[in-house]
Amino acid sequence: MTSEALWALGRGTGITALGFLTISLALGIATRSGRPLLVLPRFAVADVHRFAALAGTLLVALHLALLFADPYAQLRLVDFVVPFVGTYRPLWQGLGTLAFDLLLVVIVTSLLRHRLGLRVFRVVHWAAYALWPIALAHGLGNGTDSGRVWFVVYAGCCVLTVAAVLAWRLHSNYTEYAGARIAGRS
């Protein structure tokens, strides 16, 4: 595979990963309500959330592998683990590394969810709220497509999606697990 192909695929997988991670975050926020979302029952929303998270994670792994193999990117193994030590735009690359590290924490706690308990899982899973904007900032600052109109529109759609779900979540009418609370009182 040519260097140009590696670079294009590396960029493409990072951009697509942002989309899947946006969907995962939005659905993760939405499933906390205990209500169905649109026409999907809650279990289906949770399944799509998990699928989007897995797809985003696999795309991030592919993004890293492709850029590691690309001689133009000149990434070292330490660049994947230790933030802000990279040679190319260290701040923006470091944010990508930090997002990857947070993603690993969320993955490990998700895999160990039943052993850690629901409370620990939820507390650590809140790292996803930090992971997403850090990954977005990485893409905007380090991405070679960040100056292109289509990418700005794409990133804007991701931001609007998360902002809309957060606004819905923070709205005063939002009732988390209302049915479970009412049933528990009787």
Structurally, how many domains make up the residues?
A: 1
Query: Number of DSSP strands?
Result: 0
Strand content: under 5%
Helix and strand succession?
HHHHHHHH
Shape, per Cα inertia axes? globular
What level of helicity do the residues show? over 70%
Give the N-to-C terminal Cα separation: 65 Å
The averaged pLDDT comes out at 86
Q: What ranges have pLDDT less than 50 throughout 5 or more consecutive residues?
A: 180-186
Main beta-sheet annotation: none
Annotation field: number of helices: 8
Question: Roughly how many Å is the radius of gyration?
Answer: 18 Å
Q: What structural category characterises the helix and strand content?
A: mainly alpha
What can you tell me about this protein's structure?
- It is a single chain.
- The protein is mainly alpha-helical.
- It has one domain (3-185).
- 74% of the residues lie in helices and 0% in strands.
- It has eight helices and no strands.
- Helix 1 (3-31) runs antiparallel to helix 2 (42-69), helix 1 (3-31) packs antiparallel against helix 6 and helix 3 (90-111) runs antiparallel to helix 6 (127-142).
- The longest helix is centred in the first third of the chain and has 29 residues, at 3-31.
- The protein is globular and about 50 Å long.
- The model is unreliable at 180-186 (pLDDT under 50).
